[in-house]
Amino acid sequence: RAAVKLSDYTPPAFRVEHIDLYFSLGEEYTRVRSRMRLCRAEGTDPHTPLHLDGEALELEALYLDGQALAIDDYLLTRQGLTIERVPDRFELEVHTLLRPQDNTALSGLYRSGGMFCTQCEAEGFRRITYYPDRPDVLSRFTTTIEADRERYPVLLSNGNAVDRGESEGGRHWVRWDDPWPKPSYLFALVAGDLHCHRDRYRTASGRDVQLAFYVEHANAGRTGHAMESLKRAMRWDEETYGLEYDLDIYMVVAVGDFNMGAMENKGLNIFNTQYVLASPETATDADFEAVEAVIGHEYFHNYTGNRVTCRDWFQLSLKEGLTVFREQQFSEAMGSPAVQRIQQVRLLRSAQFPEDASPMAHPVRPDAYVEINNFYTATVYIKGAEVIRMYHTLLGDGAFRNGVRRYLERFDGQAVTIEDFLQTMAETGGRDLTQFGRWYTQAGTPRLRVRDAFDADAGRYTLRVVQECPPTPGQPAKQPFHIPLAMGLVGRDGQALPLRLAGEPEGQATTRVLELTRSEQAFVFEGLAERPVPSLLRGFSAPVILDYDYSDDDLAFLLTHDSDAFARWEAGQQLAVRVILRRVHGERREEDLDKLRRAFAGVLEHPGLDASLAAEALALPQETYLAQQLEQADPVAIRAAREGVRAELAGALAATWRTVYSRYRPQGPWRLEPAAIAGRRLANLALGYLAATGAAEDDERVERQYHQADNMTDSLAALSLLADRDDAAAQAALDDFHQRWRHVPLVLDKWFRVQAMSRHPGALARVQSLLRHPDFDLHNPNRVRSVIGAFAQGNPAAFHDSSGEGYRLLADHILRLDTLNPQVAARMALPLSKWQRYDLPRQQIMKTELQRIAEAPSLSNDVYEVVSRSLE
Ligand code: B3K
Ligand code: ZN
């Protein structure tokens, strides 16, 4: 199938000066009338035909400057509409007919519950009307929506409501005008009977902005946290980047059927309910945090994405990497930066590193795609954010912020490239970033091999760093990257040592950023009285794999003494990784458990204990991360080894866990405050260990917590431990939860999810029955993710069951889902693309299933691209 290539980019031949849209929404069909003022772009050949994208549309009529066009005046294909001869300036009117109620792909105009809504990024607008549906065509939009007044009292689109009225047959209409030119992917429309939570925000310059959150009536009262998060995000962007909101109204609508998290449509964000609704009874602390982050993310897009947008979809990371980084900065400012950083790195390692090591590996700026929706990836988003963070590290905070401001001023109202951003940052920072640009073009995770030597007589310590990046599809050999390596040296007494490179004057810095630019480099530190322990990649200063041969004792030492919180966490994790991997290899060292036990006890005894950080440090490394450390992983063996270590740590520290559990569980009613959140997190971690002691009192503790909890965090923490068991008490709790929450979709998703992720050996069979459960629905992406996604990505030992049943079950459902929703089906196929990570018998079955999918008739481009690349 045809790939779109970056190298084929050509600027648009026509500009759309204005578009006037008219929607007549109905139960059977919806009519769309579009009136566009088009003009030939300067310097374009006067004979270039006009091409408009269009997909799954019924064309009813076409008028050029008021003249109806006959069937042989234009060419209609499955991809769009071409008019051979058009004047330099003209008006085009297009009438299309849609059936949103049949749109199960959830792209374009579709129905969710009782409402109409849209999703246009990346190429959904072409499923609404014929249009040059590409991000470098910016136009002014006026939108009129007409619908039944009773069913759809609320009619929304981008910009400001400028007019409204009644029409015949109990219908009404509202006209919206968006003063900001925008690409079609930012268009949005919503119609429904919705509850509105209103508030207002006064900007730094004193303008009043109306804030409005629209939800279905059943969800009224659960938007308070999102509203407060939005105000915090607006304030933060003013204070940090000097950016003020630019319309008089900011609207957010929550919909229950949504392919991703949320969408930054100009002035009218559309959100998955999951990232708007939050109340203590229904949402966990993690949900509250995610709502704040996603609300921030979409708000920050108003500048990084909307005011300055992408020239083409290859530049996607221009808006996404930068906006994820801004979202991360916001989350760091609202909470604990160290905890945030640890969670970011955990996600990068569990989602992006495996992608970079798979047949789906692609650069942050890909150079070809078949289906663009497949490139909204961990690489484009979160490795993209790591790349932005490296600019920040290399330039420093001040120059970085100035650079971003300058980029936004210089390119305001334009559709630009990653190169434009890089150039602006280089100029502002006064740095040559040519080599740094390789982060955008070379895929793969670089590996740093660090070796050291100490010359006691000269007091000289040398770090030698070799960088390598493995081959990735289409890129057999890599050029060296420009890598900021933040590091420090720790003395034997635990003190941070001053870092003076040979030839430098005395200095007091105890953390510094070494810049790697060659495949091999050495750094010589002077004035050291003893051999230090190096603390490397502090704050995770680059998205790389670090390889330095620490002893177990070094790791335990760094866990206690490193001044960098991230590095302390990392040292603890590496120690745990080693112990678990030795078990995987059948190596049982008596002292291993002791080392871990002492290290963990040390964390808990630390005087200034931060409960949130402690919870991160005491959590065992994820199974997916452990799998990455092995050439060929056996997920069942990894699960067994990890659970074995957990059970032993549970037993060895049982008294400590019980103390931690009772000391840190917040007393009194639920509150969303940092200390209470941290307390719940640490107490629930302790409960997780206690669930593995095998003592009846601990099993009962879990049951008690489930039944007594006044909030979803504690209730779900207990329920997920119960889902690992299969006794009567566990079953009773699961039944109770279902009974209590079966009418609240987001909570019912959790019920599915904990079972799909169960560590019980019968989990695979349970997933099979969940898929036949009457509440399971392949049409709803959240439900699909909570069963199929949670199982295939979050339950490696069950998914990789050696029978191959897990793979078969996944493939069967991908094929069924593909006929309904190709975007989500393609996402669900990604776990199979990682087949190379597993042992040979598993590889074989995974490939067979990929093959079976690839051979299915009438496969979507989305799934086709994932499975065919996986097999290449
Ligand atoms: N920009 C959207 C993602 C659209 C995905 C289209 N398949 C959400 C975001 O990144 O904020
Ligand atoms: Zn985004």
Automatic annotation (TrEMBL):
MF-aspect GO terms: alanyl aminopeptidase activity; metallopeptidase activity; zinc ion binding
Gene3D superfamilies with a match to the protein in the record: 2.60.40.1840, 3.30.2010.30, Neutral Protease Domain 2, Peptidase M1, alanyl aminopeptidase, C-terminal domain, tricorn interacting facor f3 domain
Highest taxon of the lineage: Bacteria
Domain Aminopeptidase N-like N-terminal positions: 93-186
Residues annotated as domain Peptidase M1 alanyl aminopeptidase C-terminal: 552-872
One GO BP: proteolysis
SUPFAM superfamilies linked to this entry: Leukotriene A4 hydrolase N-terminal domain, Metalloproteases ('zincins'), catalytic domain
InterPro entries per UniProt: Aminopeptidase_N-like_N (IPR045357), Aminopeptidase_N-like_N_sf (IPR042097), PepN_Ig-like_sf (IPR038438), Peptidase_M1 (IPR001930), Peptidase_M1_dom (IPR014782), Peptidase_M1_pepN (IPR012779), Peptidase_M1_pepN_C (IPR024601), Peptidase_M1_pepN_C_sf (IPR037144)
EC number: 3.4.11.2
Record domain Peptidase M1 alanyl aminopeptidase Ig-like fold: where: 444-549
Keywords assigned: Aminopeptidase, Hydrolase, Metal-binding, Metalloprotease, Protease, Zinc
Residues in Peptidase M1 membrane alanine aminopeptidase domain copies: 226-436
Any single Pfam family the record assigns to this protein: Peptidase_M1
Reaction catalyzed: Release of an N-terminal amino acid, Xaa-|-Yaa- from a peptide, amide or arylamide. Xaa is preferably Ala, but may be most amino acids including Pro (slow action). When a terminal hydrophobic residue is followed by a prolyl residue, the two may be released as an intact Xaa-Pro dipeptide
Cofactor(s), names only, from the UniProt record: Zn(2+)
Annotated family: Belongs to the peptidase M1 family.
Job of this protein: Aminopeptidase N is involved in the degradation of intracellular peptides generated by protein breakdown during normal growth as well as in response to nutrient starvation.
Name of this chain's protein: Aminopeptidase N
Organism listed in the record: Alkalilimnicola ehrlichii (strain ATCC BAA-1101 / DSM 17681 / MLHE-1)
Lineage: Bacteria, Pseudomonadati, Pseudomonadota, Gammaproteobacteria, Chromatiales
